[in-house]
Automatic annotation (TrEMBL):
InterPro entries: PPase-energised_H-pump
NCBIfam families: PRK00733.3-5, V_PPase
Any single Pfam family the record assigns to this protein: H_PPase
Protein name as catalogued: H(+)-exporting diphosphatase
UniProt keyword terms in alphabetical order: Ion transport, Magnesium, Membrane, Translocase, Transmembrane, Transmembrane helix, Transport
Enzyme Commission number, as recorded: 7.1.3.1
Natural source organism: Ditylum brightwellii
Membrane topology: Multi-pass membrane protein
Molecular function as annotated in GO: diphosphate hydrolysis-driven proton transmembrane transporter activity; inorganic diphosphate phosphatase activity
Amino acid sequence: MVSLDATSVIFGSGIIALVWALIQYSLVAKIPVQSNSGVGESAGLVSGSDNEATTRRLIEIYEAIYEGAESFLRAEYTICAYFVVVFGAIIFALVSWGTGWDMQRGLFTALSFVLGAVTSIVSGYLGMKVAVFSNVRTTVSAQKPGFTACFNTAFRAGAVMGFALCGLGIIMLYATMLVFRSYYPNPEDWIYLTECITGYGLGGSSIAMFGRVGGGIYTKAADVGADLVGKVVHGIPEDDPRNPATIADNVGDNVGDVAGMGSDLFGSFAESTCAALVIGSSIGATGGWDAMVWPLILSATGIIVCLLCSFIATDIFTVKKEADVETALKVQLISTTALMIPATYGAAVWFLPAEFYLKQTVGTGTLTLNPWQAWVCVIMGAVGGLVIGLITEYYTSHSYQPVREVANSCKTGAATNMIYGIALGYKSAIIPVIVLALVVYGSFTLCDMYGVALAAIGFLTNLATGLTIDVYGPVCDNAGGIAEMAELDPSVREKTDALDAAGNTTAAIGKGFAIGSAALVSLALFGAFVTRIRHSSGDTVFQNGVNMLEPITFAFLIIGGMIPFAFAAMTMKSVGLAAMEMVMEVQRQFDEKPHLLDANPTERPDYDACIAISTKASLKEMVPPGAMVMLTPLLTGIIFGVSAVSGLLVGSLVASVQLAISMSNSGGAWDNAKKYIEKASPDSELKGKGSDIHKAAVVGDTVGDPFKDTSGPALNIVMKLMAVLSLVFADTFYAINDGTGLLALS
């Protein structure tokens, strides 16, 4: 029998993921950025005979998008680098002091924080580079007959990001653990190792906050500005090269939808793993190292499953027509979830002992667990994630009744469109919340809070596929924008729009996964926080759980519920301010250069001015929301104590998950209602593009942009970041008046 241990499986899967990402990149790189007007399998459909001029235009647009994204990320990550240095020093000082001046634990926690932050930055930057590199090649591939070439190009671009991020994340995290194990060789001391490694999750989540908020403000300021002046006022198409904001809009797809989202999901992976390791640290004493790091083995297994299933889309059931696109993407999600069921069972039987023991999160007893219980918790998470994703699709795809109702509401104007869209978002939260409640109850019943952490990892076992599909959407969106700006044959734009429409639907499914996993990750981190406080206090605090009826706890429960609304208000207003500035700049250019609106303009818009507005606004506006989310739990723990932090975390979790689902789904529904109207013919009930009904839909879509792409997704990070920060500083909080804070109110 082949002998497999955790180290070989984890490192092996990570290396395979990186190699596979490199292979996918090489396949995309083989496509030359060259337009062709001939006829045939390798020819294009470009109108006109001057292919060299069209090729130059394609390269010019590609370079403009690349330079815009590069300059923004360089500026953003420079700010992040200063933050990492300063906050790393704060972590070192406070953790060392909180652990009785254990400088080693302080140093290791700060080091893991820096490594997590650097990995998150690399992930986001890599995603941006790959997306920008691939979008123009997707445009070129769309010139070929059929859908196979352009779909495969965009899908492989997503796979580069998906597998590279998963491989890099798992290798960095496990390598850090192995280094720390050399200083904590005894299983009884592994709890200190897992506590130090929580800094890795905090680092990833901190950068994700800045990436999601900064990137979200950038992309939506440009998008809203371009839509309001271009489509609503002057009636020019989306991504029309005459619109000065169109390059900034396409840059935003890469820095927000790709780089920000990549950092976000990397943070979820890191935090869910850290939570499971802290809660399950006692498993190592009886089950050994391989049993304790089983959460990482799950992620390694997921990489292999996602790799095998990727062949279904690109090689087995290839995309030949428009109807195949959405099916291919959904099959990826369903097939990976289905294959994870036997794969995780094999991992459980192979690496977990027949019986292993776990300290209860509440109470003083010890649970006796077996592999099948741990496996069921993971599967509940994986299947629950798929259900939430499919419910999200039902409420955001124009193939189903809810979005069509929103589209029909546009007949009576923008106001009724807004009412219907907001109502849809609220209603769409019902079933996902019930599913989450069932997953939490079932997993906690089987394996205590460790089961909840495993369920959170279950949500993310097919992370490589989820990332692939998430990156696929922005790549197709950018490809369509490039086709429009390069004035290629309309059939090319129609093809990229078909790819993008399917990507929007599956992206909504991905957001459902992300929100559900964030809720479970946050709850698992809260369980880890309670576990760590119990360990620090010698079981004198939280032995019987957190009492929500304590005045200080209940008071901060209400305050915690307010935090997501304050955060959403700040980010929404930031988009509004930046969009107003963008609208004025675009209108100024149209006023000063009236010939820009000619069918064949002789003047060129100043794209750089709009890029500068988005960059400046996003860098300025991303700091206050991030500071609020990070300082609130830190100051609460220092001033009011651990009971106040407990209330704060629970209140934030409960409010964030409802608000995130409703905002994301309202925004997605408005977007697809607009697309549904655009597909209608002028003599139909919905009148099609350019009608008053369409203008009402554009208003809804414009309002929905920050809902679904700025505030909604960033709420995932709010609940996770507050929880992981509290976990990292748990010893510090307890060291202040035995956990009652400077005011000693409890």
